[in-house]
Amino acid sequence: PGTERPQGRVVDDEEGGLLFLFGSHHSSSAKHGYASIEKQRQRLPVFKYRTAILYLVETHATTIIVGETGSGKTTQIPQYLKEAGWATGGRLIACTQPRRLAVQAVASRVAEEMGVKLGEEVGYTIRFEDVTKPDVTVLKFLTDGVLLREMMDDPLLTKYSVIMVDEAHERSISTDILLGLLKKIQRRRPELRLIISSATIEAKSMSDFFQMRKKRRETENKDHGPQVEPAILSVEGRGFNVQINYAEEPVQDYVQAAVSTTLLIHERESAGDVLVFLTGQDDIDAAVQLLTDQVQTTGKHSSGLIVLPLYSGLPRADQELVFSPAPRGKRKVVISTNIAETSLTLEGIVYVVDSGFSKQRFYNPISDIENLVVAPISRASARQRAGRAGRVRPGKCYSFSMALCCYTGIFSSDMQRDPATPMLYTEEYFLNHMPNAGIPEIQRSNMVSCVIQLKALGIDNILGFDWPASPSAEAMIRALEVLYSLGILDDDAKLTSPTGFQVAEIPLDPMVSKMIIASSQLGCSEEIITIAAVLSVQSIWISGRGIQKESDEAKLRFAAAEGDHVTFLNVYKGFHQSGKSSQWCHKNYVNYHAMRKVLEVREQLKRIAKRIGLVLKSCESDMQLVRKAVIAGFFANACHLEAYSHDGMYKTLRGSQEVYIHPSSVLFRVNPKWVIYHSLVSTDRQYMRNVLTIDPSCLMDAAPHFYKLQQSNHLLF
Ligand code: ADP
Ligand code: MG
């Protein structure tokens, strides 16, 4: 592509990378009929850097772009690249995101800006959903996980001319694997361009990572290819000041505190939308409910507030509501997970209420237990969250966290702070307790999926892989052990044929994939695929404060003695027989949108199963087979009830961890002697979600090697 060389200075920054400072202008070709969108585009901070970005991308193999959230990185840069000709001759431009919801939202925004139908020139792909058109789509938004999967068919990603790895500061596990692999690909494909974009200044470590060794650099520069030295560009934002208010007393219940704060803002503050950060669907739904209830009971504000949840898994129609402006005279309150921290920009937010928490994955390689924990956010995140208030005009952030907190007197504070150094929480907490930055997910995750993916791509020396941040050796060894016991890796740590290769083809947790493969051999794949589809959505039940009793009663109508997995089959059957009716769902406290998703995922899984040669068959009502298939994948999650426990305490067979059956399970309070669980969540205790009763002798049959090993350590049977 021909890019004019911009007027500008190139300087060495102190970090050893090259920093480019530009002050150039670009006259864009405003498309007829899209003037207002065109104007909006030109007002974004990134627009001033258009020429600079295109120049850097043309001349450098890797360009690192840092810019504040909302400056236009995600929506604009792919369009600039297309306008400059990077998508000609059948080549595509990819832009990755760690989150599915962000992929959908951004792709639809870009399609709108370009005045095209989503799924044509601009498309997106997330797991189980491909909205692209071959030979037509040129801008493709996708999750980093999906791009990794594409490498299995096209290891050098040859159809892409530019790959933009967005939200790199999030350091999701897939982003890190992707960066490691892209670095390898670049050596084989010097024409490939990478853009790494991020909302926080952590460019130095990224730049170091993409720095090639000196010798390589010399040989490569001879070919007049792009410079292998990464370029760093910093987009200057134009955020407004954010006044930060924090209370002095700890709050007991951050959901309630967030709700009260929101109501106070609504009562006392001038117009402007509110963004509330909580941790997940459960507390967000609870907050929406509380807020709606309190508005109704007091009656005072009933006409003025529009309360909307925002989390992944939200149906499309609800997502769109979040982005549309509130009607005149109304105030929009969006209650979100940390997806609104940097992935999505909402217009019109003037007030932010920050709980100081997010859900984070933690893995312990010793006990081999991974769970999602509500944990304090980092200082970097806290700054980001507060910054969401200062997009349209000076804003306010109300932050609190249980550790210290901030609630009384929040409205009397008149402290005006520079947004570059906002101080959230108490100074003491902010300075001494809040971690500076988060730990990359790869260092707090189970490595099982990651190992399979690398193996499937032919990368055998996993311990020697060039990671942006290395996972722990213990986690790696654990993963190899588990994969070996699942029959996915052989004695030489290579993928087994066919099981290992089949597992790698299914875009699910390897234990789920193994369960599906076993079901094909056992003759119950129809049932197991339904179960796998249900397990892939967050929850098929409607729950919430105030309706617990009714929903528990409804659940009993489907409850199976075997446990949750079989219960899911009963729900699916009922839903199917009702003609997939939303009324049926409503009556039975079943989440209709979740069930629609289950249907979709189920179809996709059946397609994949057929492709990899599995047999689709129903076992009718032989639940013994279903149980065997589940055990074939999840034998490592077996637990037994402690003989003298009065409160239903179980211990895991591996690691002897104390765990309890989650109240949402149909086996809650039933407490059968032996169970296996699908996943753990931890709040005050470790809870097993989705539990199935088992016969312990099946464990030995399913994984003799695994349990012989365990037996020598603990006396189990
Ligand atoms: P960045 O990636 O730098 O955080 P984006 O490209 O996501 O910034 O956003 C640029 C601008 O586009 C923002 O002002 C944002 O409000 C707007 N925008 C992005 N997505 C949407 C959407 N789905 N609906 C309306 N506006 C949007
Ligand atoms: Mg972005």
Automatic annotation (TrEMBL):
<feature type="domain" description="Helicase ATP-binding">
    <location>
        <begin position="54"/>
        <end position="219"/>
    </location>
</feature>
<keyword id="KW-0378">Hydrolase</keyword>
<feature type="domain" description="Helicase C-terminal">
    <location>
        <begin position="250"/>
        <end position="458"/>
    </location>
</feature>
<dbReference type="Pfam" id="PF07717">
    <property type="entry name" value="OB_NTP_bind"/>
</dbReference>
<keyword id="KW-0067">ATP-binding</keyword>
<dbReference type="InterPro" id="IPR048333">
    <property type="entry name" value="HA2_WH"/>
</dbReference>
<dbReference type="Pfam" id="PF21010">
    <property type="entry name" value="HA2_C"/>
</dbReference>
<dbReference type="InterPro" id="IPR007502">
    <property type="entry name" value="Helicase-assoc_dom"/>
</dbReference>
<dbReference type="InterPro" id="IPR014001">
    <property type="entry name" value="Helicase_ATP-bd"/>
</dbReference>
<dbReference type="InterPro" id="IPR011709">
    <property type="entry name" value="DEAD-box_helicase_OB_fold"/>
</dbReference>
<protein>
    <recommendedName>
        <fullName>RNA helicase</fullName>
        <ecNumber>3.6.4.13</ecNumber>
    </recommendedName>
</protein>
<dbReference type="Pfam" id="PF04408">
    <property type="entry name" value="WHD_HA2"/>
</dbReference>
<dbReference type="Pfam" id="PF00271">
    <property type="entry name" value="Helicase_C"/>
</dbReference>
<dbReference type="GO" id="GO:0003723">
    <property type="term" value="F:RNA binding"/>
</dbReference>
<dbReference type="InterPro" id="IPR002464">
    <property type="entry name" value="DNA/RNA_helicase_DEAH_CS"/>
</dbReference>
<dbReference type="GO" id="GO:0016887">
    <property type="term" value="F:ATP hydrolysis activity"/>
</dbReference>
<keyword id="KW-0347">Helicase</keyword>
<keyword id="KW-0547">Nucleotide-binding</keyword>
<dbReference type="InterPro" id="IPR001650">
    <property type="entry name" value="Helicase_C-like"/>
</dbReference>
<dbReference type="GO" id="GO:0003724">
    <property type="term" value="F:RNA helicase activity"/>
</dbReference>
<dbReference type="GO" id="GO:0005524">
    <property type="term" value="F:ATP binding"/>
</dbReference>
<dbReference type="InterPro" id="IPR049945">
    <property type="entry name" value="AAA_22"/>
</dbReference>
<dbReference type="InterPro" id="IPR027417">
    <property type="entry name" value="P-loop_NTPase"/>
</dbReference>
<dbReference type="Pfam" id="PF13401">
    <property type="entry name" value="AAA_22"/>
</dbReference>
